[in-house]
Design brief:
With 177 residues, the chain is an alpha+beta fold. The protein contains 5 helices and 9 strands.
Length: 177
Amino acid sequence: MIGTERLILRPWRDADIEPFLAICSDPRVMATIGPLQTRDEILAAVARQNRLQERHGYCFWAIERRDDGAMIGFCGLKPGAEGTPIQDEIEIGWRLGFADWGRGYAREAAAASLGWAWGRGNIPGVAAITTIGNHRSWGLMERLGMVRAAGEDFDHPAVPEGSPLKRHLVYRIGRPA
């Protein structure tokens, strides 16, 4: 578990399924990420994150607000996706419900996730990917000090051909000195 002033990043619980389904079935949230997700897809995604947590000691953790205990999204680390330029790296990622955009939660959670990574002696750097149109996400990457990897834009193998979300950008940050 990772705590910040306003948030707790923690492993997933069964009670997170419905709030996460609400987040991932909101067209505003998913507009630059991918298609709306079903309950079965959410169950599979949470199971994947729990397996990553067990195997590696990290995952895209559930984000809980301290003041009211609400689950508002995820943020954390996972192995980079196969078939992408970051497949042999650690990836940082986040997704928050629309009602929680613009409150600094994503930056707070991402900074805490990076701090957790830097606290481990064997993680030399962290990477991130996002769609070209996800200005909010790559803007946060830049505010975190991540740098776009020029020339590494790629077509994500998990995104269908012809989708406007196919093209992705790569950002990286190295362990601070």
